[in-house]
C-alpha cells in the first residue's frame, strides 16, 4: 500500500496520485488551502472584518448570524466564539431522529449558559427513515448524505425566513481535510432520484431540499453567505473540548461525529466494513499537516478500531431497529453491489459547467474569502461533507 | 432520598410524537423511539405514552409499538389510548408496559376499572381524567381526547374511580395543556384532598417551580409534563431534556 509521505492518505482513496517525492494530490491541496486561509494575525484580521460585516447586517434585527449546532465539539465551540466576539447568533439544530442524549444535553447546556436562542427543525422521521433506507439500498458509501443535505438546506431555509445573511459552520479543513468526491458527493437532485427508485413512495413533505435553483437564489440574489470561522481562527479541537467541559459541563461522546447515532453507524460500520473506507485517513492527515498530530501518531490511531466490536454491533442493531430493516433485508443490502455517488444522476456535471462558466459567482456562494483556489478544485476531488 | 416522581408524558399520533396545546394544534416533535432512548439515558423516573388517535380509531395503543418502547426504556412506563378489554391490557403488559392508562372507557363502563384492577392489581391501573370548562359552567370531565363532555364532576369522578380500584389518577387540565403557564393548582388540590390514592398533576408545567407548587400547595404525589420536557428556550425548539437527579432531590428538599 502506497502512503502519502506528508500525511496518511493512501491508495485506497479514489483519484489519489503521488508525485516523485511521494506526496499525494490530497496533501498538496491541503497545503494550498492552508496557504489560502492563513490563521494567525492575517486570519484574525479577516475574521474580525467578517464580524464587523455580520454585525452591520444584523443591525436592527434580532440575530446577526445562524450557527448550525449538533452538540459536537466544533459547533459547540463555535457558539462560544460567536458569543465572545459579540455576535448574536441563532443556533439551529436539525433533528433527524438519531440525536444522542449527549448531543441534546450539550446543545441544552451551551445555549442555556450563553442565552443563545435555539431553533430546531424536525424532519418527520417516517420520511427520514425512508430516505436513509433508500440510500442503503442504493449501495452508496455516504449513506448519511441525506442528513448533511438537510442540515445545509435547513440553515438556508431559516436564514431566508429570519432575514439573516450569514451562516456560520464549524467545518475546519485543518482537522477534517477534504473527502474524495466519490465518497461524499451528494445533492438534492440525486436524493430525489435515489428516494424515488429505492424508497417506499412516501411523499417528502418536511424533508428540506436545497435544490440548485434555490441555492443560487439564496446565495446570489439574497446574498446569504456561508462562513467557516475556523478557516481563519486558531482552533484546536482538543483544547476546545477541554474548555467546553470545564466551562459548560459539556460531555465528550467519543469518535468524530458520533453525537448522532446514524452518523456513527455510517462512519464506523457501514463505510469501513462494507466499502473498506476509513474516513479517519482524511481527518488524521489534515491534522498531521496542520501540526496537531505527528505522522506516527496518526498511523497508530489508524491501526485502532473505531469502537469495540460490541459497541459497533449495538449501534448496527439499533439502526436496523430504527429503520425497521429485518435481518434478511439488512443481509440483502449488505451483500448488494457497492456503488458510488456517480452511479446515480446528479447535478454534478451541471455544477462543473457552471463552475467553469461562472466560477467568480460560484465562489461567492461557497464564500471562500480570500480565495484563489478554483471552484473546480472545490467541487472536484474535494467535495466536503457539510458538517 | 424520597422525592415525588417526575414524569414526561409523550403523545403518539400515527407513528410520530406530537405536542398539543389545549389538546389541539398538534405539533410534530420527532420520532418516539429516539425520545424514549434519550429519556432513558437521561434517567427519567417514569414515562407515560398516550396514543391520542386510538380511541377514535376504535383500537388500543399498539402492543408492537409498546414492545419497541420497552426495548429502549429501562424505567417503568405506562401506556394508554383506546383500551377497552382485559385482553388488550394483557397484551400491553406482556409487551413491557408496567401500567396502563384508561380514560374514555372508564367513563363508558366504570365496572371495567373494577374488573381490570381485580385482574391485574390496582397498581397497574391508572385512570386519567381530562378536565375542561365551558364558558362559565363548572369544570367537568371530558373524554375521547378532549372532544366529549360528560357532565361529570372531577372530584366525584376521581373518588368513584378510587372506589373501583384505580391505583393512581392523572389529573390533566385541557385548558392548561401546552401553555407552560403552570398547573391548575386548585383543581389538583381538590382532587388530591378527596382521594387516598396518588394523584399525578398534568397540564401546564412550564418550569421546575411549577413542580414544587403542585406538590407543596396541591399535594400531588407526582408531577407530569409534556412541553417542559420536549421544548427548549423562547423559540420552543424541540430538544428533549430532563433534570438531573441531584437537581430534583435539591428541588424537593
TrEMBL record, chain A:
| Annotated InterPro entries | N-acetyl_sugar_amidoTrfase, Rossmann-like_a/b/a_fold
What is this protein identified as?
Uncharacterized protein
Species of origin: Runella rosea
UniProtKB/TrEMBL annotation, chain B:
Is Chaperone tagged as a keyword? no
Q: Which residues form a coiled coil?
A: none
InterPro entries according to UniProt: Aldolase_TIM, His_biosynth, HisF, IGPS_HisA/HisF, RibuloseP-bd_barrel
**Biological process, per Gene Ontology:** L-histidine biosynthetic process
Record EC number: 4.3.2.10
Listed pathway(s): Amino-acid biosynthesis; L-histidine biosynthesis; L-histidine from 5-phospho-alpha-D-ribose 1-diphosphate: step 5/9
Keyword Plastid assigned to the entry: answer is: no
Which reaction equations make up its catalytic activity?
Answer: 5-[(5-phospho-1-deoxy-D-ribulos-1-ylimino)methylamino]-1-(5-phospho-beta-D-ribosyl)imidazole-4-carboxamide + L-glutamine = D-erythro-1-(imidazol-4-yl)glycerol 3-phosphate + 5-amino-1-(5-phospho-beta-D-ribosyl)imidazole-4-carboxamide + L-glutamate + H(+)
Arranged from A to Z, the UniProt key words for this protein are:
Amino-acid biosynthesis, Histidine biosynthesis, Lyase
Q: Which GO terms describe its molecular function?
A: imidazoleglycerol-phosphate synthase activity; lyase activity
**What is this protein for, i.e. what is its function?**
IGPS catalyzes the conversion of PRFAR and glutamine to IGP, AICAR and glutamate. The HisF subunit catalyzes the cyclization activity that produces IGP and AICAR from PRFAR using the ammonia provided by the HisH subunit.
NCBIfam families assigned to the protein according to its UniProt record, in alphabetical order: AglZ_HisF2_fam
Give the record's family classification. Answer: Belongs to the HisA/HisF family.
Give the multimer and partner information. Heterodimer of HisH and HisF.
* Protein name in UniProt: imidazole glycerol-phosphate synthase
* Source taxonomy: Bacteria, Pseudomonadati, Bacteroidota, Cytophagia, Cytophagales
Amino acid at each position: 500500500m502506497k502512503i502519502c509521505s506528508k500525511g496518511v492518505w493512501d491508495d485506497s482513496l479514489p483519484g489519489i496520485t503521488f508525485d516523485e517525492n511521494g506526496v499525494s494530490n490530497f496533501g498538496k491541496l491541503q497545503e494550498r488551502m492552508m496557504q489560502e486561509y492563513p490563521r494567525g494575525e492575517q486570519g484574525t484580521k479577516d475574521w474580525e472584518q467578517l464580524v464587523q460585516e455580520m454585525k452591520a447586517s444584523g443591525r436592527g434585527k434580532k440575530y446577526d448570524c445562524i450557527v448550525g449546532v449538533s452538540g459536537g465539539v466544533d459547533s459547540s465551540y463555535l457558539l462560544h466564539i460567536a458569543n465572545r466576539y459579540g455576535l448574536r447568533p441563532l443556533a439551529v439544530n436539525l433533528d433527524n431522529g438519531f440525536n444522542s442524549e449527549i448531543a441534546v444535553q450539550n446543545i441544552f447546556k451551551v445555549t442555556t449558559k450563553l442565552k443563545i436562542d435555539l431553533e430546531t427543525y424536525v424532519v418527520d422521521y417516517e420520511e427520514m427513515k425512508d430516505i436513509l433506507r433508500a440510500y442503503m439500498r442504493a449501495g452508496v458509501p455516504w449513506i448519511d448524505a441525506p442528513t448533511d443535505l438537510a442540515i445545509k438546506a435547513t440553515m438556508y431555509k431559516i436564514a431566508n425566513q429570519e432575514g439573516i445573511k450569514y451562516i456560520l459552520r464549524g467545518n475546519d479543513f485543518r482537522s477534517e481535510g477534504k473527502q474524495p468526491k466519490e465518497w461524499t458527493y451528494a445533492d438534492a437532485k440525486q436524493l430525489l432520484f435515489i428516494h424515488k427508485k429505492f424508497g417506499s413512495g412516501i411523499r417528502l413533505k418536511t424533508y428540506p431540499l436545497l435544490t440548485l435553483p434555490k441555492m443560487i437564489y439564496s446565495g446570489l440574489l439574497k446574498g446569504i453567505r456561508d462562513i467557516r470561522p475556523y478557516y481563519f481562527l486558531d482552533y484546536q479541537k482538543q483544547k476546545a473540548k477541554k474548555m467546553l467541559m470545564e466551562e459548560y459541563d459539556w460531555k465528550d461522546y467519543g469518535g468524530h461525529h458520533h453525537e448522532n447515532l446514524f452518523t456513527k453507524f455510517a462512519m464506523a460500520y457501514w463505510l469501513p466494513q462494507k466499502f473498506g473506507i476509513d474516513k479517519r485517513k482524511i481527518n488524521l492527515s489534515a491534522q498531521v499537516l496542520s501540526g496537531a498530530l505527528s505522522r506516527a501518531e496518526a498511523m497508530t490511531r489508524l491501526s485502532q478500531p473505531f469502537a469495540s466490536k460490541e459497541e459497533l454491533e449495538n449501534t448496527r442493531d439499533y439502526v436496523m431497529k430504527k429503520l425497521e430493516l429485518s435481518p434478511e433485508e439488512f443481509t440483502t443490502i449488505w451483500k448488494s453491489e457497492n456503488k458510488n455517488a456517480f452511479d446515480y444522476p446528479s447535478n454534478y456535471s451541471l455544477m462543473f459547467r457552471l463552475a467553469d462558466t461562472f466560477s467568480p459567482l460560484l465562489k461567492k456562494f461557497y464564500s471562500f474569502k480570500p480565495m484563489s483556489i478554483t471552484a473546480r478544485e472545490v467541487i472536484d476531488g474535494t467535495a466536503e461533507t457539510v458538517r | 432520598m424520597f422525592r415525588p416522581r417526575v414524569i414526561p408524558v409523550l403523545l403518539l399520533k400515527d407513528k410520530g410524537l406530537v405536542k398539543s396545546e389545549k389538546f389541539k394544534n398538534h405539533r410534530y416533535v420527532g420520532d418516539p423511539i429516539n425520545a424514549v432512548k434519550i429519556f432513558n439515558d437521561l434517567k427519567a423516573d417514569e414515562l407515560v405514552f398516550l396514543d391520542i388517535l386510538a380511541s377514535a380509531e376504535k383500537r388500543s395503543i399498539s402492543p408492537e409499538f409498546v414492545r419497541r418502547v420497552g426495548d429502549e426504556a429501562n424505567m417503568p412506563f405506562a401506556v394508554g389510548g383506546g383500551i377497552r378489554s382485559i385482553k388488550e391490557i394483557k397484551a400491553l403488559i406482556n409487551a413491557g408496559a408496567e401500567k396502563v392508562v384508561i380514560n374514555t372507557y372508564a367513563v363508558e363502563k366504570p365496572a371495567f376499572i373494577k374488573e381490570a384492577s381485580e385482574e391485574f392489581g390496582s397498581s397497574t391501573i391508572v385512570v386519567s381524567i381530562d378536565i375542561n370548562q365551558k364558558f362559565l359552567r363548572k369544570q367537568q370531565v371530558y373524554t375521547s381526547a378532549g372532544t366529549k363532555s360528560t357532565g361529570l364532576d372531577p372530584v366525584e369522578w376521581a373518588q368513584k374511580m378510587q372506589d373501583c380500584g384505580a391505583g393512581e389518577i392523572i389529573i390533566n387540565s385541557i385548558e392548561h395543556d401546552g401553555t407552560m403557564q403552570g398547573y391548575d393548582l386548585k383543581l389538583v388540590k381538590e382532587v388530591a384532598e378527596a382521594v387516598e390514592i396518588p394523584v399525578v398533576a398534568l397540564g401546564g408545567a412550564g418550569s421546575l417551580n411549577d413542580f414544587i407548587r403542585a406538590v407543596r400547595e396541591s399535594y400531588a404525589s407526582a408531577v407530569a409534563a409534556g412541553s417542559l420536557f420536549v421544548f427548549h428556550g423562547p423559540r420552543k425548539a424541540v430538544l428533549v431534556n430532563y433534570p438531573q437527579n441531584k437537581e430534583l432531590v435539591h428541588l424537593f428538599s
